[in-house]
Design brief:
alpha/beta; 4-stranded mixed sheet; elongated
Length: 124
């Protein structure tokens, strides 16, 4: 049950948010590390307030922070592979869209969910 959360600053252009999420989910699914496509859940959390550096002219720097949380049990090599995959996919999807609007920094973190994690399907 991986959860992918993207935090995106307002100076980063994401023209088709659902398309970006779909490409990320598909990339994760294609790795074969997950049981079924609906296990993969992704969302974008827009950031209204952010600061890069300390000077006003540094605010042309935008960022995307991706955090993938998964159940425990995958080795460091697998987590690194997934981080690189997400980094590459985000770069492919967003780099051309920026057109000099903002210098874009992409950060990806892959971590295990807490051992205390519960889920339940409601309805059906």
């Amino acid at each position: 049950m991986p959860h992918l959360t993207l935090q995106v600053t307002p100076n980063v252009s994401v023209p088709h948010e659902e398309s970006l999420l779909k490409s990320l989910n598909k990339a994760l699914w294609d790795t074969g590390h997950f049981g079924k496509p609906t296990d993969i859940k992704a969302r974008i959390v827009p950031l209204e307030t952010f600061l890069v550096g300390v000077e006003d002219d540094e605010q042309t720097n935008g960022m995307v922070y991706a955090n993938l949380k998964m159940m425990a049990g995958r080795d460091i090599a697998t987590r690194n592979q997934l981080a690189e995959l997400l980094m590459t996919t985000i770069e492919e999807q967003l780099s051309a869209e920026q057109s000099g609007r903002a210098a874009l920094q992409v950060c990806v973190e892959v971590e295990e969910l807490s051992a205390v994690y519960h889920k339940k399907m409601l309805g059906s």
